[in-house]
Design goal:
Layout lengths: L6 E8 L2 E6 L6 E21 L10 E23 L15 E16 L18 E6 L2 E4 L1 H23 L2 H12 L32 H6 L2 H14 L10 H16 L3 E17 L8 E15 L2 E3 L2 E3 L2 E14 L20
Parallel strand pairs: 6-8, 7-8
Antiparallel strand pairs: 1-3, 2-3, 3-4, 4-5, 5-6, 5-7, 8-9, 9-12, 10-11
């Protein structure tokens, strides 16, 4: 039935959502995500490609994304960790008290995938327009001692869970299953009484006295050392150096200049832009905190032509970053009761 659809439009909208996520059933560490509105819209096209292999097949369906846009408004992320139980205090609830730490908030996040003409895949886009574009407006993040401990614990739990899934996967258990599935062959030799006769033992092999070959004699003693030295020298290229290196140096400089001006970018894959972003940094040595701000920050991922390295053709990807109007501010007089539970003095855009 899906082959009859040529174009599909998908649209999703959630006006308000509240998500609680815990790493385990013990509910020791987790995060809380709240948002006012999230919307997504996309268009997909179907192309039936004939299979040309000498046999009769149905055309192979290939779905292509024409465009995709997503938008998130007024979202906040809080990290949560369970507080230790106090000794001598009765607990009236089955759940442990939870401490919430402010982590991140965004005013608006928009994602767009570059629209491609019908019948053209996204790989064939022009080099000037990136395939994926992510723009974050009014990002505010805090990195404190409590946030760091919870974030590292969440990351450590995630990596351990990933490693456990990998160890328990079917690929990892193939080695153990191979030994258990093999069964020894049963002997078919039976006597007239129905008893199984054991197979006759193989005749003992005659004792053969090993005599060293000329190659073995050559590899022992000083001859082996000289042979290994000759093999090591054969891999090295013999180069004769001279005092006059002007021509060789000039050629290297010309190749370096040509490589610097050469544009081997195939296409731009990701563009991440942060507009009016702020990050709060707070330590434990001193009171107060520092706020880093930037009017515009961009991170661009570029895909280059494959390069030849160590006798292997490898892919090449570069990341380019830029900052505009970067400033940092610090609190001048921090109070004795310095806590982030109070209102943070974020910078105004106006």
């Amino acid at each position: 039935l899906s082959r009859h659809y040529r174009t599909i439009h998908l649209s999703l909208a959630l006006h308000r959502f509240h998500i609680h996520y815990w790493m385990s059933f013990a509910m020791q560490r987790g995060l809380e995500l709240t948002g006012q509105r999230i919307s997504s819209s996309s268009e997909h096209t179907l192309t039936l490609v004939p299979v040309d292999d000498g046999l009769k097949h149905r055309p192979r369906p290939e779905w292509a994304i024409v465009y995709m846009t997503c938008e998130l408004n007024d979202a906040e992320v809080w990290l949560k960790s369970a507080l230790p139980e106090e000794s001598g205090k009765e607990t009236l609830s089955l759940r442990q008290p939870v401490e919430k730490c402010y982590c991140l908030s965004v005013g608006k996040v928009s994602y767009g995938r570059e629209a491609s003409p019908l019948g053209v895949k996204c790989r064939g886009l022009t080099e000037g327009n990136p395939t994926h574009r992510l723009v974050v407006h009014h990002l505010k993040g805090a990195w404190t001692m409590s946030n760091r401990e919870v974030a590292f614990a969440l990351f450590d739990s995630f990596m351990k869970t990933k490693e456990l899934k990998k160890n328990l996967s079917t690929e990892a258990l193939k080695g153990f299953r191979g030994d258990t599935t093999t069964t020894p062959l049963k002997s078919r030799n039976r006597n007239t009484g129905g008893q199984v006769t054991p197979p006759a033992p193989p005749p003992p092999a005659p004792a053969i006295q090993a005599t060293p070959s000329p190659m073995t004699k050559l590899q022992s003693g000083q001859a082996a050392t000289m042979l290994q030295q000759l093999i090591a020298e054969a891999e090295n290229k013999n180069v004769v150096f001279s005092d006059d290196l002007s021509t060789h140096t000039r050629e290297q400089q010309l190749q370096g200049l040509a490589a610097c001006h050469e544009d081997d970018v195939v296409h731009k894959n990701w563009l991440i832009a942060l507009v009016n972003s702020q990050v709060l940094l707070k330590g434990i040595e001193t009171k107060g905190y520092v706020i880093l701000s930037a009017a515009k920050a961009e991170i661009l991922q570029r895909v280059h032509r494959p390069v030849w390295k160590d006798r292997t053709l490898v892919s090449k990807t570069t990341w380019v970053g830029s900052l505009e109007c970067m400033q940092y501010y610090a609190t001048v007089s921090a109070g004795e009761n310095d806590s982030l539970d109070e209102n943070i003095m974020w910078l105004n855009v106006e």
